[in-house]
UniProtKB/TrEMBL annotation, chain A:
<dbReference type="Pfam" id="PF13482">
    <property type="entry name" value="RNase_H_2"/>
</dbReference>
<dbReference type="InterPro" id="IPR012337">
    <property type="entry name" value="RNaseH-like_sf"/>
</dbReference>
<dbReference type="GO" id="GO:0003676">
    <property type="term" value="F:nucleic acid binding"/>
</dbReference>
<dbReference type="InterPro" id="IPR036397">
    <property type="entry name" value="RNaseH_sf"/>
</dbReference>
<dbReference type="InterPro" id="IPR038720">
    <property type="entry name" value="YprB_RNase_H-like_dom"/>
</dbReference>
<feature type="domain" description="YprB ribonuclease H-like">
    <location>
        <begin position="107"/>
        <end position="277"/>
    </location>
</feature>
<dbReference type="InterPro" id="IPR011990">
    <property type="entry name" value="TPR-like_helical_dom_sf"/>
</dbReference>
<protein>
    <recommendedName>
        <fullName>YprB ribonuclease H-like domain-containing protein</fullName>
    </recommendedName>
</protein>
From TrEMBL, chain B:
<dbReference type="Pfam" id="PF00271">
    <property type="entry name" value="Helicase_C"/>
</dbReference>
<feature type="domain" description="Helicase C-terminal">
    <location>
        <begin position="280"/>
        <end position="431"/>
    </location>
</feature>
<dbReference type="Pfam" id="PF00270">
    <property type="entry name" value="DEAD"/>
</dbReference>
<keyword id="KW-0547">Nucleotide-binding</keyword>
<keyword id="KW-0347">Helicase</keyword>
<dbReference type="InterPro" id="IPR027417">
    <property type="entry name" value="P-loop_NTPase"/>
</dbReference>
<dbReference type="GO" id="GO:0006289">
    <property type="term" value="P:nucleotide-excision repair"/>
</dbReference>
<dbReference type="InterPro" id="IPR055227">
    <property type="entry name" value="HRQ1_WHD"/>
</dbReference>
<protein>
    <submittedName>
        <fullName>DEAD/DEAH box helicase</fullName>
    </submittedName>
</protein>
Length: 425, 756
């Protein structure tokens, strides 16, 4: 049987095997490239985009300048200058810090792709790029008119952007950038080198500050719940692949106009979000205790003890959980510095100030008692509290709790030994 | 205190056993060694010497020199012949000379890759050069993955990983693909049938990607003994191969015994169940703490044997010394068993052919096969599991009453002189091909006019474009779909989706205890079936086809279940046809449609094997298009013998064909089906169909069509040499009008035989 016949015969079975939902069309798919060229030109006009040819390929680029006083939620792009200036006096090592940078060096960046997987078969078909200059927000969107035009697409993007050291993205580290790297492999002989990449990932920052209060830390959720921007007629990002496939079959602006607008708003939101996050971290706007605690922890983790210390101290007097947690953190900082008495006092104050202190704090206190003050009886008491807490809280089922309990019991035995020895002396 | 018997005592006892129908001793062989080849790197020599190797077996030296001359090589190597060095030496030599070079090894299982990596690492340590070899599989952690991609000189993986992880993400593996010098494929014979056809396509994809990055790796393949290693390696890799099959490794003396269980029912010529015999023989060794491996042909039999054998020991700890090993177990469980066998904590293991492969379990003393394993390659692989460095090895094959086993038991000369079978794959199976065209287009767009494994790809790409999977633009077909094709395609099972087996005995703590392909699920995990896992019985509460889950609950009953299928055959197109001279019948080959419906199941009591009940199976019909070979008889035979008798003869013929077919083509029993039809719907004539049990066929029935005269001759011999009068499991089975049917069949085939 010929291959053609076989295809016919197995069509149904193969079709079932594809398991891919299809959309029905009445029109014929045109193969005529001249007609397609005309259609693309019309689409470019409708999208207010210019066509940039490159060898026998081309890319659609939409350029736009947005005024510095345009409102994005509560902010205007103009405020970026103030924020960047503030960073010059703030922490230089904070992951969000623009220390040493000018506002126009920040590149706000977002992509749309043909699928969520990250293999060799997904493409980026839209890149949105914005920078804030004295004249306004300069926004550029690069649109891939078809899979055969990637060299033109990346050529234009890489030529315009030059340095990619200061990208501002939302989940760019895990999503957008690996995909840029993958696609670059296919055109690397035809386009400028992919420059070194560094960036501010606002997903990371948002997750830190708001993961407790948001169901999911997605850009749209952050916009709605935190920035109060909200979109009126948004095309959801997950529709992007489907709409793009439609466009490839019928190159009409209407298929992708919505997704291009979606990308535009994403990029602009990044500007507002960066301003908002920076102001919180820099202490230029009010933070609630949850935010302030997380910001303090962030400073602590990057080794900025001084800033962390001040923030924790401001929280330590609170009667709620953040007060308790902050005391524990302060104690940790004191202990690291060798101020054991201070550390212990804070721990004790935290323990007595809370209905149910957790096991880790008891153990920390026990450690100080044992190793610094050699007060084994007190250490035993704290350890016993920690074990009781675990027993009560988790029962026997939790495996991690079981492990902890075993470690605590070991500690208890050791303390008993020490105590015994001491008494013998 | 119980008195232990030694191996020699047991041997002497067995010598007196009247059921041992043949005792064949395979003499030991001394090694053929040659000095290290002159070109070999001094560091490599030194490393080998310090490991106590001061010369090579002749085939190892052959392999080294042939590979270094740039040839693609296939090696045929029996168990424990030092095959690893055959590929490790040229690979290490090359990487020592140019550290930028890369090698990709793939093994059929993760366990094998792990073993080989450990061995490689020992050698590398001895060499003292900073060479990096890694395993890359589903268990490899994210951080190590990056290192492997960037710097792994030798990457050991499996075809599934290549298919679903490495190839679709080739842009992350640029330094591997740009510098790939060797592709090592171990255990080539495993890649047969559907699995092999898939793997051949994965290799086609690999070649496309290497080509894109400008590399042209050499292939080094190793295989157990099969009759067409070169042809098979060439079909799998698309390369011209040089064959190395002169084995220079030594072997110990092996006693190969055939045990034929006694006839327990003279009238019906029914023999004692082979499982019972195996149990008794294995128990004799196990009771005396002699490490024994038992091979059984199905998962079900493995489980039954384990539960019987564990009864020898009463204590819980003692019971744990005997365990089962088969597919469907989770990796950790397998690792535990392998370790236990190596360090002697586990005394006995009952396995499917999963332990045929080079998984390192050390060498055991005794190997018992429950029936003929289905092909000679398996026989020798399984037998290779027995035989420590010192002392004789003992292999006992216990014949079942199926015709092939009985034939082998009666014709040991035939058995020992038998050529191994052919391995067949069909990489051009349309269903499989289409799957991989999708994956390959995902990896790299297809330019118009490009070929895939030598086939023009345009029509296939156009088909996928019509299905909205690819998009054609400026002379190329591009992937344009938001799915990830490799995820939807499994290389391993006939049907693409696998079912999770969920133990719900403890409602609070349900857990997945294994998985099974769709066909297996529909024939073993239907509602009310008794499913056996690690010797424990479970009742199947629910089979959820949508969610692909089977919910099972622990029970303790004294029966097991077995299912029946109703099968409809339709001929779609006849491609080839030829008369079978003297038989008044034609052989045909072509495309057929098979519709199968599980209908009822029987409950069968363990001890007596009597049927104690039955139930309906409520599952939808499975339909597939595939290739078949069939024999169409003249209606004159129906007239001559009468419908009932002739139908009996056809059923008997099917029974024999099913068992004899694996003599001509290497396949698992589940790869083929045989269906007799007294009036086939396509021409109203009596017919017997043999079809490939995979959509589109995998080349088995084609081969059987070609060998049909020899196959029928073998069937006649089997029927003739059986002593029974009216049919028994060892010839035509139990059919209506057994006596007349057997005579009719012998008459038909006898006529035929005398005419040839």
């Amino acid at each position: 049987m010929s291959l053609k016949q076989k295809l016919q015969l197995y069509k149904q079975q193969l079709h079932q095997a594809q398991k891919i939902e299809r959309q029905e069309y009445d029109e014929e798919v045109t193969e005529n490239e001249i007609a397609e060229g005309l259609e693309i030109r019309q689409a470019a006009r409708d999208l207010h985009a210019e066509i940039f040819p490159f060898h026998d390929e081309y890319v659609l680029v939409h350029t736009e300048r947005i005024g510095l006083r345009t409102l994005i939620g509560h902010y205007t792009p103009e405020e970026l200058f103030t924020v960047v200036e503030d960073w010059q006096r703030g922490s230089s090592s904070h992951p969000l810090s623009a220390y040493g940078l000018k506002a126009e060096e920040l590149l706000f960046f977002d992509t749309e792709t043909t699928g969520l997987a990250a293999g060799a078969g997904e493409m980026i078909f839209l890149i949105g790029l914005a920078r804030v200059t004295g004249e306004g927000v300069e926004l550029k969107q690069y649109f891939l008119p078809g899979p055969g035009h990637e060299a033109a697409f990346y050529h234009a993007f890489l030529n315009d952007s030059r340095s990619l050291k200061n990208l501002v993205t939302f989940n760019g580290k895990a999503f957008d950038w690996p995909r840029v790297k993958t696609r670059y492999q296919f055109v690397r002989n035809q386009v400028p080198r992919l420059p070194a990449f560094g960036h501010f990932d606002l997903l990371h920052a948002s997750r830190r500050l708001w993961k407790e209060r948001l169901d999911s830390v997605k850009l749209q959720t952050v916009e709605k719940e935190i920035l109060s921007t909200g979109r009126t007629e948004d095309v959801p990002g997950k529709m992007a692949p489907f709409l793009y496939f439609q466009f490839l079959k019928h190159p009409q602006a209407s298929h992708v106009a919505g997704i291009i607008e979606h990308n535009r708003e994403d990029v602009l939101s990044l500007i507002a979000l960066y301003i908002h996050l920076s102001k919180k971290v820099l202490g230029r706007i009010d933070c609630d205790p949850a935010e302030q605690y997380e910001i303090a922890r962030w400073y602590q983790q990057i080794g900025d003890k001084e800033r962390a210390f001040h923030l924790f101290q401001a929280l330590a007097d609170l009667k709620d959980n953040y007060g308790y947690l902050s005391k524990a953190r302060l104690a940790e900082i004191y202990k690291r510095e060798g101020h054991y008495t201070h550390a212990l006092t804070l721990m004790q104050s935290a323990i007595s100030g809370k209905a149910e202190p957790d096991d880790s704090l008891y153990i920390e206190a026990a450690k100080i008692m044992e190793h610094q003050f050699k007060k084994y009886e007190e250490a035993i008491e704290y350890t016993q509290h920690a074990i009781d807490y675990l027993q009560e809280k988790t029962g026997d089922k939790d495996e991690r709790a079981g492990q902890k309990t075993r470690a605590y019991l070991k500690r208890l035995n050791r303390l008993d030994q020490k105590l015994l020895k001491e008494m013998e002396r | 205190m119980k008195v232990r018997e030694s191996m020699d005592d047991l041997l002497n006892e067995l010598k007196k056993d009247p059921n041992i129908v043949n005792w064949h001793t395979v003499p030991g062989r001394s090694a053929t060694s040659v000095p290290f080849p002159g070109a070999m790197d001094a560091r490599l020599r030194k490393a080998l010497i310090s490991r106590g190797v001061d010369s090579l077996y002749s085939h190892q030296a052959d392999a080294f020199e042939t590979v270094m001359r740039g040839k693609d090589v296939v090696l045929v190597t029996p168990t424990a012949s030092g095959k690893t060095l055959c590929y490790n030496l040229p690979v290490l030599q090359t990487i020592l000379t140019d550290p930028a070079c890369r090698a990709l090894y793939f093994f059929p299982t993760k366990a094998l890759a792990q073993d080989q990596k450990n061995e490689m690492e020992e050698l590398i340590n001895e060499i003292g050069a900073p060479l990096k070899s890694y395993t890359y599989d589903g268990d490899t952690s994210g951080t190590i993955r990056q290192t492997i991609r960037r710097a792994g000189q030798i990457v050991m993986t499996n075809p599934d990983m290549l298919h679903s992880s490495i190839l679709p993400h080739h842009t992350k593996w640029v330094s591997l693909f740009e510098n790939l010098k060797f592709v090592v494929i171990d255990e080539l014979h495993v890649y047969r049938g559907v699995f092999g056809s898939h793997v051949a396509n994965v290799i086609r994809r690999l070649e496309r990607i290497c080509n894109y990055y400008g590399s042209h790796p050499q292939f080094i393949c190793t295989s157990a003994t099969i009759s067409n290693p070169r042809e098979h390696a060439e079909a799998l890799t698309g390369r011209r191969m040089t064959l190395i099959d002169r084995n220079g490794a030594p072997s110990v003396r092996k006693h190969f015994l055939f045990y034929n269980p006694p006839v327990v029912n003279k009238q019906l010529n029914v023999r004692e169940d082979e499982m019972l015999a195996v149990k008794n023989i294995a128990a004799r060794f196990l009771k005396n703490d002699i490490q024994t491996i038992v091979f059984a042909r199905s998962k079900l039999k493995v489980e039954l044997l384990v539960s019987h054998l564990q009864e020898i020991n009463s204590g819980r700890e003692e019971r744990a010394k005997i365990c089962a090993y088969r597919g469907g177990y989770l990796p950790l469980e397998r690792r535990r068993i392998e370790r236990g066998l190596r360090n002697g904590e586990i005394m006995g293991v009952v396995s499917t052919n999963a332990l045929e492969l080079g998984v390192d379990i050390g060498q055991l003393r005794v190997c018992i096969m429950t029936g003929y394993p289905g092909n000679m390659a398996s026989v020798w692989q399984q037998a290779g599991r027995a035989g420590r460095r010192s002392g004789d090895a003992m292999i006992i094959m216990v014949a079942s009453s199926n015709p092939l086993d009985q034939y082998m038991a009666g014709h040991p000369d035939y058995f020992f002189s038998r050529k191994p079978e052919e391995v067949r794959i069909n990489p051009d199976n349309l269903m499989i091909l289409m799957d991989h065209i999708k994956c390959s287009a995902y990896e790299l767009p297809f330019p118009k006019g490009e070929t895939f494994g030598g086939l023009p790809a345009d029509d296939l790409c156009q088909f996928l474009a019509d299905e909205d999977v690819l998009h054609y633009q400026t002379g190329k077909w591009y992937w344009m779909n938001d799915s990830f094709p490799a995820n939807e395609i499994s290389l391993r099972s006939a049907v693409q989706d696998s079912f999770a087996i969920v133990d719900v005995t403890d409602q609070g703590h349900t857990k997945v205890i294994g998985e099974m392909d769709r066909f297996g699920a529909m024939t073993m995990l239907y509602e009310d079936a008794i499913y056996i896992h690690q010797g424990v019985q479970y009742h199947v509460d629910q089979l959820d086809l949508e969610q692909r889950k089977a919910y099972i609950r622990r029970v303790n009953v004294n029966y097991y279940t077995d299912s029946d299928l109703a099968v409809q055959m339709d001929v779609l197109e006849k491609d080839e046809e030829a008369p079978l001279t003297g038989l008044d019948a034609d052989k045909c080959y072509g495309d057929v449609s098979v519709r199968a419906l599980p209908t009822v199941f029987k409950k069968i009591r363990f001890e007596t094997l009597e049927n104690i009940g039955w139930g309906h199976i409520h599952l939808p019909e499975m339909e597939m298009h595939t290739n078949a070979a069939w024999i169409t008889f003249s209606e004159k035979w129906t007239d001559r013998f009468g419908k009932d008798v002739f139908q009996g003869a056809l059923v008997g013929l099917s029974h024999l064909l099913r068992h004899a077919a694996p003599l001509y083509v290497m396949c698992d029993q589940s790869d083929l089906s045989v269906v007799p039809k007294i009036k086939s719907p396509h021409n109203e004539k009596p017919s017997v169909f043999i079809y490939d049990k995979y959509p589109g066929g995998i080349g088995l029935s084609k081969k059987l069509y070609e060998s049909m005269p020899e196959l029928l001759e073998k069937v006649r011999e089997m029927a003739e040499s059986c002593g029974c009068e009216s049919g028994c499991p060892s010839c035509i089975g139990f059919v209506n009008e057994g006596k007349a049917a057997k005579q009719a069949l012998l008459h038909i085939l006898g006529d035929y035989s005398s005419c040839r």
